[in-house]
Amino acid sequence: MPRLSARVHLPSGRVARLSDEAARRAAAHARTPDVRPGGSMEALGILEAKDVARTDAGAPIDVRGLSLRDFHVLRALLVHAGVQAEAPAELPCENCGEAFRVAPSSLLEIAPFVDAELDDPELDAPFDHETAHVIPAIRVGTELARSIRIAARTVEEALPLFRAESAPTRITPALVVAMGITALGRERRASAIAKALAAAPGEAYQAVADCLYEAHYSARLVAVHRCAACGARNDLDVPWQREIPYEIGEPRKARRAFPDLDAFEAMVTSAADRIYQARRVRNIDLIVDDGVPACDDGGEPLLGCYTPGGTDATLGIPRAPEIRLFYRTFQAEHRHDRSFDVAAEIDETIDHEITHHLHHLAGDDPLDEEEHAVIEKEAIRRIGKREAARRAGRGLASELAGFVRTTWPLFVIAFVATYFTFCR
Ligand SMILES: [Zn+2]
Ligand SMILES: [Zn+2]
């Protein structure tokens, strides 16, 4: 188990000095039957114990006065260091379905908090508490609300949520206030908002929960697990257990149906006819693959990929260039995002792969280089610049983009023997 970092920076700009020893001592006392192990209440008990958390000047930190965002970073660090226990999550890989088991907090990148690198425009952006955030429609009385406002909350103000974390969830007016929801559409009364949320379609409520997570949790509190079977990136919440419930009420309603394989193939064929002609290319094989999608170096399942023509290394026969579309990635994207436009994305993917093809014929693919640069940059933002340099220094450059070098050649071989360009 790693030790608790002695000095960390929090999203608000505060600095906290932490004592590993005092925290572990406090953890032994914080465990009581009515407090959920690994939860927020337990974290509060530990952080408020003597000598655990101090300001840079050495004074005890007023933990209840911290913003929820700051508090959750401290809680994540406690779980990461094993001061608080976390049961491993057991999930299927989002890409290939293979089950994996991992304690998400063990994969948290803590260096940006330690090295004071909380300046990423996206990952460290403050939440906008003033504007109304768009959500799917939720019925409130006789009106449909399509937006939500969320105020900042301190630990003290969020205590009703912490207290409810070990009990089954029902959204009460007190919880609405504790979550910081100040308006749902035009409705401002907590009692009416609680009622509306309790009856909201699962999908709409999840959009609300996503907004609440964005407001009260740093975007850095995420673990990136790379699937050992297919290399796909699976992002997991840290801490895995959050005091704001992600699911209430009815199970999800069915979405607009996704085309079956035959219908999808027909869409791809007609799109390709049109796009090949427009871009003046021909003789590129077009394949719809309904197996486990290949992933890019960053572990993102691909919508499509391009493989240049050449001579097949094993068979020694010439092979045409190929564009491959991954049916299951389209399906997964559609599942995640209602607004995902399947036809438009097919068009864009084919067009994108043709660009790779033309670059390849020209002898230079700046698009491919750009894509690799984006993946590496994203990894560095998450891991932290100094930590990335340290890992590179230790010869762990492969951990940078999180290459799964041991496994990915297997599925590359399954496709083609020669050179393979990842894309989209
Ligand atoms: Zn997988
Ligand atoms: Zn590409």
From TrEMBL:
<feature type="transmembrane region" description="Helical">
    <location>
        <begin position="400"/>
        <end position="422"/>
    </location>
</feature>
<keyword id="KW-1133">Transmembrane helix</keyword>
<keyword id="KW-0812">Transmembrane</keyword>
<dbReference type="InterPro" id="IPR038555">
    <property type="entry name" value="Zincin_1_sf"/>
</dbReference>
<protein>
    <submittedName>
        <fullName>Uncharacterized protein</fullName>
    </submittedName>
</protein>
<keyword id="KW-0472">Membrane</keyword>
